[in-house]
Every structure is written in C-alpha cells, then in structure tokens.
Amino acid sequence: MVTVGVLVSGAGTNLQALLDAQADGALAPAKISVVVSNNPDAPALARATAAGVPTRVVDHRGLSRPEFEDRLIAALGDVDLVVLAGFMRVLTAHFLDRFPDRVINTHPSLLPAFPGMDAPGQAIAAGVAESGVTVHFVDPSVDGGPIIAQVPVPVLPGDTAATLHARIQAEEHVLLPRVVWELAAQISGVT
Fold it and tell me: What domains appear along the chain, each with residue ranges and CATH number?
C-alpha cells in the first residue's frame, strides 16, 4: 500500500475528490493515511474526519519556515506521497528533500501560464481563450515544478473568475485522483 499525506489550508474540495475516489476503491494501491493543515479552522479537516482519516494541525504562525516544515514532516510521518490540495504555503527544499519526487500539487491553470494566486482571475484579465488545470511535481519555485498532467478548460464569453474556477475545479476533481492513482501504481510497481 502506498501511503499518502494530504496538505490542506481551506475548504478541501480536492481532498473530498480524493476521499471519494478512495471510498470507491479508485485510489488503490494508494491510501490517504493523514491530512495535515496549517489552518486549524480549515473545513477540509472535517471532511477528513468524516471519512475516518486522521488529521493534524501544524499552524505556521509564529514559526520560522524551517520550524514549520520540520513539524509538517513530523506530522506526515513516513508517507510515500505528499499531495498539496489547496495548501497555501510555499515549501522549500528543506521540506522537498525529505520527499524527493514525491510531492505533487494541483493548480487552476495550464502552467506555466498564470502561476500563483487567483489563476482564474489572471486568465480572465489576460483575455485568453483557454485555461485549465495542471498537476505537477513541486519544486521550490511557485507552481514551477515538472508537469505531470493537464486538462484544458475553455474561457467562455461572460466568464468571471468564479465561473471559470468552478469549471476548472470540476476537471481538477477528476484529474487529481487519477494522477494519485497513477503515481501510486508506479511507486508500488503495480501495473
């Protein structure tokens, strides 16, 4: 079994997509073993608890970045794969070196376009015809690691950042569990 730690900061819709896939048997050989949040009030924690997945809170406030990352590493334990699912903190090499090539993120754009915050709003402001979702390996840059998979989403006339983001999320909720399953299969040697 490939153990997965999920890092969250907010509502947890991507986490819910992973939990639903796990409940349906669609993540095996992956199993979410812990959900960790930097936000003690994150609704994602309640989603994990409802699914019977252990949770931890590592509040970043008042901690240096190395202290925060050391506590994250301790909270994750010996997981095989780390998934950032709406985790709103940039991780450094200090953290990433503990899980080499085993930390992934989902981002609501077709990277390298529109990294960082409010990617759907950036897409609307730029007037592009297409945006989408990217799942990528995490490196110390912001949304700059190697791309694993992408799904395009058209920008429709009259779209707002919110309407575009809702359509991107629908694709994200399909793509992220599929990528986690594929990576878990590779890690475990299952074909």
Answer: 2-115+134-150+168-188 (3.40.50.170)
